[in-house]
Write a structure and sequence with these properties.
This protein is mostly helical and 173 residues long. It has 7 helices and no strands. It has helices at residues 2-29, 33-50, 60-83, 101-120, 123-133, 138-145, 149-172. It is globular, with a radius of gyration of 17 Å. Keywords: Sigma factor, Transcription, Transcription regulation.
């Protein structure tokens, strides 16, 4: 019985610490608001189940990010097979609070463009970019992904260059 209590305690700790990151990962992975909610639910179930095997050999953050990114990657694979690659963008489900409406719309548009851009990346790059946007260091991302910190830093640099180029081209079109 103690084991189940430990599992529940770890789960609550993980959700308290990483719940917002899970929401952001779901939004970066899935455009459809309903499927985003399903994805977050799947992440919660997977995290709770995974703590039955958690032995503490890695940090809680590494464990949670590995599990949630694996769930997100499986979701993308499943949706790709189901939709044969078709991705539709839904309207923004919530407007940011505060500021002028024009500035809020511009910020929401930029965020949605970023999320759409991330969703188009291949799985390893999507994972690296979403972890980078969570302010994880190259060393932390390397621990989660199994790549070297140098490889992570190089990919982040290339992805940022690619992002800048894509956004500039879109703005000039």
């Amino acid at each position: 019985m103690k084991h189940a209590q430990d599992q529940d305690t770890l789960y609550r700790e993980a959700v308290d610490a990483f719940g917002p990151a899970m929401q952001r990962l779901a939004r970066a992975t899935e455009a459809n608001a309903e499927r985003q909610r399903d994805l977050v639910q799947d992440m919660h179930v997977a995290i709770w189940r995974s703590f039955a095997q958690f032995d503490g050999r890695c940090s809680l953050s590494t464990w949670v990010y590995r599990v949630t990114h694996n769930v997100a990657a499986s979701h993308v694979d499943r949706e790709t097979r189901r939709n044969r690659g078709a991705v539709t963008l839904d309207a923004i489900d919530q407007m940011p609070d505060g500021g002028s409406l024009s500035a809020d719309l511009e910020q929401a548009d930029a965020l949605e463009r970023l999320m759409a851009w991330i969703r188009r990346l291949k799985s390893p790059d999507r994972q690296i970019m979403t972890l980078y946007l969570e302010d994880l260091s190259a060393a932390e991302i390397a621990e989660i992904t199994g790549l070297t910190p140098g490889a992570i830093a190089t990919r982040i640099s290339r992805l940022k260059t690619h992002l800048t180029k894509d956004f500039q081209e879109a703005d000039n079109a």
